[in-house]
Amino acid sequence: GKCKGDYVQHRLTDFLKESVLVEEKRLIEQIVSQHKPWIEGCIEVGYVIVPRQVVIQVSEKTDDLIWVRIHPNYSAKIRIGWPLLIYDLIRNEYIAGVVSAMGYDIEDPQVYERESIYPRVVLTSELIKYGDFEFLEHLPVYGVEPICTLRNENGKMRRGSINFSPHARAPVFLPPNHIILKVLGLPEKGIPYGVIMVGEDLAIDPTTGQYLVYRLRPFLLFEHELVLGSTGKGKTSKCKNDIFWFIKWLNGTVIVFDLHGEYSMISEDPMEEYKGKINDLEINIWEAINAKPTKINDVVVWFWVPASESNKYRDKSTKHVKFFSIKFNEIPPNELQYYLPALSPQGYYVLPSLIREFRREGGKTLEEFYEWLQDQKFERKRVAPATLYAIIRRIASILEEDIFDGVLPDISTDQIFVPGRVNIINLVHVKSQIARRIIVFHVINKVASVKLRDHQNKLPCTMLLIDEAHQFFPKKVKDRDEADYIDRAVRWMARICREGRKFQLRVEISTQSPEDLHPEVIKVVNTITFLGCTLSQAKALENIMNPLPVSKKDLINLETRQAIIWSRDNAKIPIKVLIPWPLLKHPIKKKEE
Q: Could you give the CA distance from residue 416 to residue 258 in angstroms, rounded to a whole number?
């Protein structure tokens, strides 16, 4: 009886198991029959696998990856950085991500010759000669780093967080452009920065053949941008394109600090030079971003003139070329701390009150103030002798630079704030580093003092382009008093950036020496465009920007005009792009032809 009972119990258990499996299979069939891939324009290229172990991983991060097998027809086209969709048949949702690793799974260990007792030593050419192509069937697997989920809610696509894993053999799709933009969080409309790249290839919609364009949301222009990279990697090309779009999209006004004479030519028609020298790829990119290189019609070049030479240029200003001086008497006392570098902290504290007293007595020029200071007998409680001596000594060195009080009028903000105008502050002829800093800070101060009071938005949108920013906001300064001056200037610039957002004042900072740029300047920008760097620069960036949003390897391998853009509020991840050939005139180098 006991044996019969055990037999019945076992049969009943098997029956229940079979019933559960049958019911489970029926439910799965029912779900799968109802759930079908619902995003149109995708191309199925592979499926999810569950490897026992992956070897030869090519990635810095492999923890939370989904491994997929790609069909041979598409395996050669898939590279690191390629966006893919994984469709879960059970949940009726997609997991969207990018390929961040690749390697080989060891489901069949005999595939790997190093684990074999008798490795095959036949040359590949010999295998091909006899028609043995088995080695080509052992394709790599790709690790997809998930970014988001895509859910169909009443006919509308919704992004969501990653909260499940797909089942084995879930189909993998290559998505069309508009889905890629959705996954990356990029807008379909906005200012085009370039064509998205995957590896060394330009991203192309598999259904339409059109380039995938990286666009920036216009409001993010006023969250400011840093453009960095070593010499010859395309910073000036990028900045010229930014001027083009700022004028075209916003009809704003641009102020450029030009240290090398690279921007004056933007008033010339670039197509005269490009004709017959630009390849079809560049033309196709121009068509993709809906732009053709043109010129800026309204360009004014401003030259600062030393005080001793200003008489020569009294009547030389024209419609497009203007000369100016800096008037000491017109600078507010509290702002002189940005004009007189290397004063001690005590000097900055007492200077405004001394200036006010000097002006009440009718003084105007810096030279008069210098002489006035030497004639005064101040109480020790008000000004310590050491502090007074430091101020006099500092002003003496500034007077030698011949910066202030020429007969020419100061730069006019009325002539700067003109819609569609590019103002180029030409600094090529200014050899002194002190003079360059004072001129740049003076113009920034003039622009900011007017723009940051424009509560009614009567003035046009404004862009400040500061080239070679490390010269004006250096990271390291040997002199302690000068370091204090730079720190003040950096804090002042950070305040302008923070307040400028709501007044539509954009600050774009460019540097070829990011390792020498003050780290506080980097903190005020929302968008960073990384162009090619040296290894030492990449290591320096890693110390400054912790964590560095892109890998050092990627930075040092960027070719000219290839860039990685990291904009927190515009895309979910850093994205590699190819910058279009300059939309404003730029000399064509032999390397680019």
A: 16
**What's the number of CA atoms in the CB half-sphere (13 Å) around residue 264?**
13
Nearest alpha-carbon partner for 512 in 500, 539, 530? 530
Tokens representing 450 are 């007017």
Q: Cα–Cα distances in Å, from 74 out to 44, 208, 377, 402?
A: 9, 17, 85, 67
Three-state DSSP class for 160?
A: strand
Residue type, 298: D
What average pLDDT does this structure show over 325-351? 86
Chain-wide mean pLDDT for the chain? 87
User: What is the distance between the alpha carbons of residues 581 and 147, in angstroms, rounded to a whole number?
Assistant: 31
- Supply the DSSP symbol for 188: S
pTM, two decimals, is 0.84
575-591 pLDDT, tens digit each? 999 999 999 999 876 44
Output the pLDDT for position 288.
92
The number of beta carbons lying within 10 Å of the beta carbon of residue 309 is: 13
Q: Are strands 505-511 and 225-228 parallel, antiparallel or unpaired?
A: parallel
For the chain, the distance separating the N- and C-terminal CA atoms, rounded to the nearest angstrom, is 95
Mean pLDDT, range 516-531, rounded to an integer: 92
Strand positions, DSSP E, 212-324: 213-216, 225-228, 253-258, 299-304, 321-324
The dihedral sign for the CA sequence 55, 59, 63, 65:
negative
Q: What is the 3 state secondary structure string of 323-371?
A: EECECHHHCCHHHHHHCCCCCCHHHHHHHHHHHHHHHHCCCCCHHHHHH
Average pLDDT over residues 566-582: 92
Cα separation, 408 vs 43, whole angstroms? 67
Split at pLDDT 50, 70, 90, the class of 526 is very high
How far apart CA 292 and CA 287 sit, in angstroms, is 7
| C-alpha–C-alpha distance, residues 83 and 382, integer Å | 68
Q: Is the peptide bond before 547 cis (omega within 30 degrees of 0)?
A: yes
- The residues pairing with 174 across neighbouring beta strands, listed in sequence order, are 43
Consecutive H or E run containing 288:
helix 280-288
Q: What is the pLDDT of residues 186-215, one digit of tens each?
A: 999 999 999 999 878 898 877 778 899 999
Total count of residues recorded for the chain: 593
Amino acid letter, residue 185: G
- Of the pLDDT bands very low, low, confident and very high (cuts 50, 70, 90), residue 593 is very low
DSSP 363-406: --SHHHHHHHHHH----TTTS-HHHHHHHHHHHHHHHHTT-B--
Q: What is the reported pLDDT for 82?
A: 85
Q: What is the DSSP string of 459-506?
A: SPPEEEEESSGGGTSBS--SSHHHHHHHHHHHHHHHHHHHHHGGGTEE
Longest dimension (CA), the chain: 125
Contacts of residue 298, Cβ cutoff 8 Å, sequence gap at least 6: 418, 420, 421, 422
